[in-house]
Amino acid sequence: MRLTGESQRLARFEWKGDVLHGRLIAEDGDDVLEVLSTDPLKGAAEPTGRRVPLRDVRLLSPVSPGKIVAVGRNYADHIAELSLDTPAAPRLFFKPPSAVIGPGDAIRYPAQSHEVHYEAELAVVIGRTARDVPAERALEYVFGYTCANDVTARDIQREDGQPSWAKAFDTFCPLGPWITTNLDPTKLVVRCEVNGEEQQSAGTDTMLHPVASLLAYITAAVTLEPGDVLLTGTPAGVGPVVAGDEVAVHVSGIGSLVNPVVGR
Q1: Which residues pair with 175 in a beta bridge?
Q2: Angle (CA) 29 31 37, round 5°
Q3: Confidence (pTM)
Q4: Mind giving me the DSSP string for 200-213?
Q5: How confident is the model at residue 4, as a pLDDT?
Q6: What SS3 class is residue 94?
Q7: Which of 53, 113, 145, 247 could staple 153 via S-S, CB 3.0–4.6 A?
Q8: β-pairing verdict for 239-241 and 116-118
Q9: What residue stretches are annotated with the Rv2993c-like N-terminal domain (predicted)?
Q10: Cα dist. 108→118, 121, 258 in Å?
Q11: How are beta strands 229-231 and 68-72 bridged, if at all?
């Protein structure tokens, strides 16, 4: 499927035991997934003629990344709420692909932690191999955008002083509900609700390092491949969740990523 200049919502989903890819469309007032011939990140995906109601499928993480690069301290208000220093350059870390879950999947409290926090973020999905990409061309390498929750064991992060282990646990990287193409990443709003109450809200125009600059900085050292994911940081309002809570990440132009929290 040739991606046009129009925004498209591309999902990965399970239906009748099969894992499929589809484009979300409206048909007779209902949301329907138009099944595609392949993963559009891997080849020319064409409509197969099959259409499945969205309500009948289980949405999966819309991408299976080879690597997840994340940036910390990218919103000034979040830096202030944690009483941290503002880094001069992007503060990067990696999350393992094994942390990824999809919409509706449970965030599991690890036995090692007693304080797990939500962090709503805009996620960037890479569409082309990117190495030494200049900032002015960086968005040409983006396939699309999705919602992310950079779940963090905050007590562990405080103990060791760095984020990687505290953010690496299984289920600590919800992604979804789908990838939306052709958005302006500087004009979106990232929000988070816990049990229906808003906890975070900020425009991506307040990022200290915008998406294009981040991609230029990262690809000067690390090659990004199609399907890799960049997490762009979280705004102020992070806080703890407990078993029984429901966390919803909303990004304008994309949709909502909702995950329950379960106990150890």
Answers
A1: 148
A2: 130
A3: 0.96
A4: EEEEGGGBSS-HHH
A5: 58
A6: strand
A7: 113
A8: antiparallel
A9: 9-62
A10: 12, 19, 14
A11: parallel
In sequence order, the β-bridge partners of residue 239 are 118
Q: Which helix (H) or strand (E) holds 214?
A: helix 211-219
Burial class of residue 10, CB neighbours in 10 A (0-12, 13-18, 19+): buried
DSSP-H helix ranges across 1-65? none
The sheet carrying 116-118 orders its strands as: 152-153, 116-118, 239-241
Q: Return the CATH class of domain 9-59.
A: mainly beta
- Topology of domain 68-262, per CATH? Fumarylacetoacetate hydrolase; domain 2 (3.90.850)
Could you read off the pLDDT of 204-220 as tens digits, one per residue?
999 999 999 999 999 99
User: CA-CA distance, 121 to 147, in Å (whole number)?
Assistant: 6
Q: What is the rounded distance in angstroms from the CA atom of residue 45 to the CA atom of residue 39?
A: 6
Q: What are the sequence ranges of the domains in the chain?
A: 9-59, 68-262
Task: Tell me the residue type at 210.
Answer: P
3-state secondary structure of 69: strand
Contact in structure between 116 and 240 (CB atoms under 8 Å): yes
**What number of other Cβ atoms are within 10 A of residue 66's Cβ?**
13
Residues in the chain, overall count: 264
Question: Rounded distance, CA 122 to CA 199, Å?
Answer: 16
The tens digit of pLDDT for each residue in 108-158 reads 999 999 999 999 999 999 999 999 999 999 999 999 999 999 999 999 999
Distance from the first to the final alpha carbon of the chain: 43
